[in-house]
Amino acid sequence: MRKLLVQTKKLPDTPGVYFFTRGREILYIGKATSLRDRVRSYFSFTGVEASRGGRIMQMLALATGIRYQQTDSVLEALLLESALIKKHQPKYNAREKDDKSYWFVVITDEEFPRVLMVRGKDLLQEEENSDRFTHLLMGSLPRRQAGDTTQNFPLLSAYGPFPNSSELREALRLIRKILPFRDKCKPLAGEKCFNAQIGLCPGVCDNSITRVAYNRRIGHLQLLLAGRVRPLIAKLTHEMKVASRRQDFEKSAQLRDQIRALKHIQDVGLIKTWKSDFQVGGSPTSRFRIEAYDIAYLGGSNAVGVMVVMEDGELKPSDHRKFKVKNGGDDLANLREVLERRLAHHEWPRPDLIVVDGGVNQLNTAKNILAKTKIAIPVVSVVKDERHKPKEILSDQKLLPDQRRLILLLNHEAHRFAITFHRHRRKIV
Q1: Separation of alpha carbons 164 and 170, rounded Å
Q2: What is the rounded CA–CA span in Å between residue 181 and residue 188?
Q3: How far out from the chain centre does Cα 361 lie?
Q4: If DSSP codes are grouped into helix, strand and coil, which group holds residue 197?
C-alpha cells in the first residue's frame, strides 16, 4: 500500500475517473471531484473501514497500481464512470441486488423518444423487458422492430447503473438545459407543454421540432450519456458548420451555444444562481424553490387561494396547495389569510422566492406578513393590465430575462390553477 500512497501524490486536483488495478486487471472504478483528494481518502484506514467494510480493504490489499482519466467536469466523470463500469465489470464495484435497486437513464423506443430516470427493479417487471434490459446493458441489442412494443418501457437504450439518485437527477437537470428532451408531454398535441415554454422540451408537443431533428437530438444525448463528450462536441461542431454553409444561422447559433455549454459546463443548476442574486440564505446544495400565489372569486363568492411550486426551474405539482378562504371579494385579506396559513406549516420546505399576483398593495401585504413572522424571503409581484396580461414585475432586485420569464410562467400557472379550483367550487356548492 505504501507504493500506492506514493502514486497518489502524482494525481491532479481535477475531476475524473480513477482505477485501482492489479497488473492489467481493473479491480475498481470510481469518480472524483478531485482525483488527488478522493484517492488519498482510501488510505485513511479508519474512515475506510467504518464506511466501506472489508470489501474495499481487500481490494486495496490486492491492488498494485492506480490509473486515472481526467474529465472537464464532475458531470462528465459521473457519466464516464457508469460507462466504464458497464464495459469492464470490475470485481469490486458492488452491484446491489443485481442492479435492481440502482438507477438507470432510459431512452424509450417511440416516434418521439422519452428520456426517463428509472429504477432497475421497474425495468425488470416484465419478462420481455428483463431480456431486453440484459442485452441493453451488454450493448448487444439491435433497435426494436416495428410493432414490437412493451407496455411500460419500450426500450431503445439504457445507461447505468447509477447508485446515487440525487446525483443522477442533478445531472439530468443540467443535461436538459443544454440538450432539451421529452419526458412526459404528448407529441403533436398542438400546444406547448410547460417544459417547452421554459426551454426544457424542444417542442415535440406543438410540432416545433421535426421527428428527424428530434431523433438527431436523441443521438446527441446517447453520446453524452455514454460519457463520450468529446465525440459529441466534434459532431455538434460539424453540424454547426453545415448549418452555417446553408445560411441557417438560427440553428448554427443554437449549436454554437450547446458546444459552448458542453465545453464550459458547471456542475450546479443554472437556477441556483438566484440564491446570490436575491442574497437568500440556505445550503448551496439545496433546491431553489419558488412559490406563487393567486386568489380567485366571482362576485365575492366561492373565493379560493392557491400556491404553486417550482424547484430549479421545474414545476412540482405534488407541492401545489389549494385554500378555501373566507373574506369574499377582499383580495388583500384573502392573500393575507393564505400566506399566514401557508407559513404556519413549518414542515413544508421554505421557499427562496415568493411571487404574488397584483400591484404594490399585494406586494406590501406579503412583505408585512413575512416581517410579522420574522421570516426573510424575497417577494416579487406581477402587475397585470386591464386585460389581465402581465405589464411589469415589482421587485427590489434587478431581474435577468430568464428570471423574469420563469416568474411570469409560474404566475400564469398559479392563475390557471386558481381558476380551475374556483370553477370546481362553484359546481359543487
Answers
A1: 10
A2: 14
A3: 35
A4: helix
DSSP H or E stretch at residue 341: helix 331-343
Antiparallel, parallel or unpaired: β 25-32 and 390-394: unpaired
The pLDDT tens digits of the residues spanning 362-372 come to: 999 999 999 98
pLDDT (0 to 100) of residue 99: 52
By the 8 A CB rule, do 86 and 138 touch?
Answer: no
Q: Are residues 423 and 327 in the same domain?
A: yes
The domain of 8 spans 2-92
d(CA 243, CA 163): 39
Q: What is the pLDDT of residue 177?
A: 86
82 and 156 share one domain:
no
**Residue 241 in domain:** no
Q: Give the count of domains, the chain.
A: 3
Last residue of a domain, one of 193, 227, 261: 227
**pLDDT value at residue 338:** 96
- Here the cell at position 247 is 445560411
Closest CA relative to residue 208, chosen from 225, 231, 188? 188
Residues of the chain with pLDDT under 70: 1, 44-53, 94-101, 123-155, 264-286, 400-402, 428-429
Using an 8 Å Cβ cutoff, are 49 and 37 in contact? no
